[in-house]
């Protein structure tokens, strides 16, 4: 570990996992947990998970990772990374600087998150999602990536959330929609089509209306 970093004795760091300086890793945190394919290889080889060489998770400086959080292997997070309790971040996810992942958030892997992003508690983010800089996602929002679940071939395509967009609490974004730069999605909205930049999506299903002038500025995150 780097200088002045505290890792609770109950935390587990697998593979080549690392945490930058001035960081805090609290109770029962797991960093670098292997994905399913790797776990099967470990089981067949009959070795302990602690002895298996793998990339692990790489966390930058000034992190604060709260109790119960699990970060899988092949995750990279930048500086000032923070989580609530019991967050889960799966493999092949890249996270920028100054990002908050709230309590009970699930990021299901193969996700790209930019800088200065705030994702509040109980949000679900599936695979193949892109979240650009200065995005806010309110509590209990749900993003989807499979247009016809369990029917036909599976071609996951998650939403794209552009720079400075805001997603309200309990909103739902269907697969493949794009939320434009600076756009807002109201609480409880069901977004079934793209939202243009600097517009407001409101209702169920959502309608696109003009964004109030007082809200025409990027999020201050």
Lay out the secondary structure.
Blueprint: E1 6-7, E2 12-13, E3 18-19, E4 24-25, E5 30-33, H1 36-45, E6 57-59, E7 64-65, E8 70-72, E9 75-77, E10 82-83, E11 88-89, E12 93-95, E13 99-101, E14 106-107, E15 111-113, E16 117-119, E17 124-125, E18 129-131, E19 136-137, E20 142-143, E21 160-161, E22 166-167, E23 172-173, E24 178-179, E25 184-185, E26 190-191, E27 199-202, E28 207-210
Parallel strand pairs: 1-4, 2-5, 3-6, 4-7, 5-8, 6-9, 8-11, 9-12, 10-13, 11-14, 12-15, 13-16, 14-17, 15-18, 16-19, 18-21, 19-22, 20-23, 21-24, 22-25, 23-26, 25-27
Antiparallel strand pairs: 27-28
Structure description:
One of its GO terms (molecular function) is transferase activity. This is Acetyltransferase (Isoleucine patch superfamily). It comes from Methanolobus tindarius DSM 2278. Keywords: Transferase. By secondary structure, the protein is mainly beta. The chain has two domains: 1-109, UDP N-Acetylglucosamine Acyltransferase, domain 1, CATH 2.160.10; 120-221, Hexapeptide repeat proteins (UDP N-Acetylglucosamine Acyltransferase, domain 1, 3 Solenoid). It has one helix and 28 strands. The protein has one helix spanning 36-45, and strands at residues 6-7, 12-13, 18-19, 24-25, 30-33, 57-59, 64-65, 70-72, 75-77, 82-83, 88-89, 93-95, 99-101, 106-107, 111-113, 117-119, 124-125, 129-131, 136-137, 142-143, 160-161, 166-167, 172-173, 178-179, 184-185, 190-191, 199-202, 207-210. An eight-stranded parallel beta sheet has the order 3-6-9-12-15-18-21-24, with no helix packed on it. An eight-stranded mixed beta sheet has the order 10-13-16-19-22-25-27-28, with no helix packed on it. Strand 27 (199-202) and strand 28 form a beta hairpin. The protein is globular. The mean pLDDT is 96.
């Amino acid at each position: 570990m780097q200088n002045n970093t505290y890792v609770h004795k109950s935390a587990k760091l697998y593979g080549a996992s690392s945490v930058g300086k001035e960081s805090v890793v609290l109770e029962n945190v797991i960093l670098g947990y292997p994905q399913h394919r790797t776990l099967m290889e470990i089981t067949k080889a009959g070795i302990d998970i602690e002895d298996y060489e793998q990339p692990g998770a790489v966390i930058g400086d000034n992190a604060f990772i709260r109790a119960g959080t699990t970060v899988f292997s092949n995750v990279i997070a930048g500086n000032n990374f923070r989580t609530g309790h019991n967050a889960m971040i799966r493999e092949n996810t890249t996270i920028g600087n100054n990002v908050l992942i709230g309590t009970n958030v699930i990021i299901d892997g193969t996700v790209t998150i930019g800088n200065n992003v705030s994702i509040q508690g109980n949000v679900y983010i599936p695979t193949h999602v892109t979240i650009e800089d200065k995005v806010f996602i309110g509590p209990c929002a749900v993003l989807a990536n499979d247009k016809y679940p369990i029917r036909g071939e599976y071609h996951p395509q998650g939403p794209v959330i552009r720079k400075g967009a805001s997603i309200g609490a309990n909103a739902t974004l269907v697969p493949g929609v794009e939320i434009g730069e600076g756009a807002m999605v109201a609480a409880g909205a069901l977004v079934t089509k793209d939202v243009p930049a600097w517009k407001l999506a409101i209702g169920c299903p959502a309608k696109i209306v003009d964004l109030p002038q007082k809200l025409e500025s990027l999020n201050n995150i």
